[in-house]
Sequence to fold (183 residues):
Amino acid sequence: AAGDKAKCLYFTLIAADSMLRGGGFQEALTALERALTLADDLGSAETVFAAIRDREAEAHLGLGQYDLARALLEQNASVYTSNGDTAGLNRVFQRLGDIFYTFEDLDQAQTAYQRALELAQSIPDSARIAEALNSLGNVAFDLNQLNTATQLYQASLSISRAEGGRWGIAGSIAQDSETDDID
Fold:
């Protein structure tokens, strides 16, 4: 019985992740409600609930429900802090930065992205570092700090190239520089 519920929880989360990737945010929320019930029935650890809330926050962001997403993220910040989960905290601050950025609260966005960068560097996680640098570049650009923005984008691009990936505007810079050779 408990094994069946654990399997059901596992596959429910896989389905919710698929729905989130496909833009089915409302459907994902329905699946995540089921996941919360299963996790509760199983007496799961708080970290399991935090992982579910992370997904709920993503769904609420996709639906434009920023206050709900922010509340879930802030709730998770305390869980991740008490458990020493640096990667979880990084996700929280990156998403909080995204929310602040959406509402053009550039000071708070910059603070959140800076914290996300510090956490990513402490892991270290190159993809997360590149994401935070790119986000900080966006803020600097919007603040008309063009030299700083360029430096941040270039740092993000450098990491992305080293890792074999491309991130945000850093990828655009890479594409532009590649097409410049063709002209």
About this structure: The chain has two domains: 1-84, 109-183. The chain has nine helices and no strands. Residues 109-183 form a domain with the Serine Threonine Protein Phosphatase 5, Tetratricopeptide repeat fold (CATH 1.25.40).
